[in-house]
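Practice record 12: protein with dinuclear copper ion.
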Amino acid sequence: MNDLMRRMLFLPEQASDYARRVDHLHYFVIITTMIAATGVFLTALIFFVKYRRRSDTDRTPHIAPRLIHEVLFIAVPLGFFLLWFAIGFPQYVDLQRPPQGAMDVYVQGKKWMWKFAYPGGPSSLDSLRIPVGRPVRLLITSRDVIHSFYVPAMRVKQDALPGRYTQTWFTAERPGRYEIFCAEYCGMGHSSMLGELIAMPAAEFDDWLQQQRRGLPLTADSAPVAGDPVRARSNLIAQGQRVAADQGCLKCHTVDGTRHIGPTWTDLYGRPEKLTTGKTVVADEGYLTKSMMDPAADIVAGYQNVMPTFQGKMSPPEIAAIVEYIKSLSTAAVRSGPSEGPAYESIPRK
Ligand code: CUA
């Protein structure tokens, strides 16, 4: 029913809880007004026929309406108006009152783009990323003229006024990409003042934000997590495993302790390795990273120098993820307990 009505009215998809509520009110108003309009039209038609002038001497009789008809005529439409108000006003009030703990994103409109600033400093142009299932409060302003921040799929539209902050909020219900428009004519570039709202699964969003805060380049579907070091680590490990498979690392390095073309990754982290030069190094983050970038520099005794460099083939987060994956392959024989944070930062432990 919801979907049918939505299609009939050419409404965009409903990507927020608010969208559904607004649409339901909209359907209700449309349906009741359509029924009323049909009733008025049919009545007019019947009256045209029934009370048509039949001869030149026909006289229109005087009709005194009964009080009850007058009362109904006023009360029924008024009742509907009040009912719509009773449904719509709480929705409006709700939209003005973001819940406690909503994530704040600063939105700045300017000719002709949208700029978004996230908690902790990161910012972006024309693409707004938000976590699914968490309320997001937008604090909106403009640097020049009046714009209007509009996301049809969320049923959110709020003017951006210079010198003033307006706010609105919503909770995205499912991941996806949604269009952002400017809904206030603001000059030549108005029609191109577009943006994209990207709703991501909450964990992925945290990873992204964390990564942005670190100022590291973002890789496709890459992953760690703000506020949850344990999940951050397991995400990194999973990502490392993926990257290692994609890059072909596992063709030469085993993860089950057996010897292959290269040293096994099992218990590699923290292991003292004897090099061809006779030196001994401890396979720490620094060594592991260096070995990926410049494999010929320190060859482990007993192995051939056959590994290609991965300099420029992997981004820093990917390298960190691989290091984290290698660290996760420690058995109790070498170390026990959780390993430390990834190479490029120390995630505080719980
Ligand atoms: Cu900005 Cu129209």
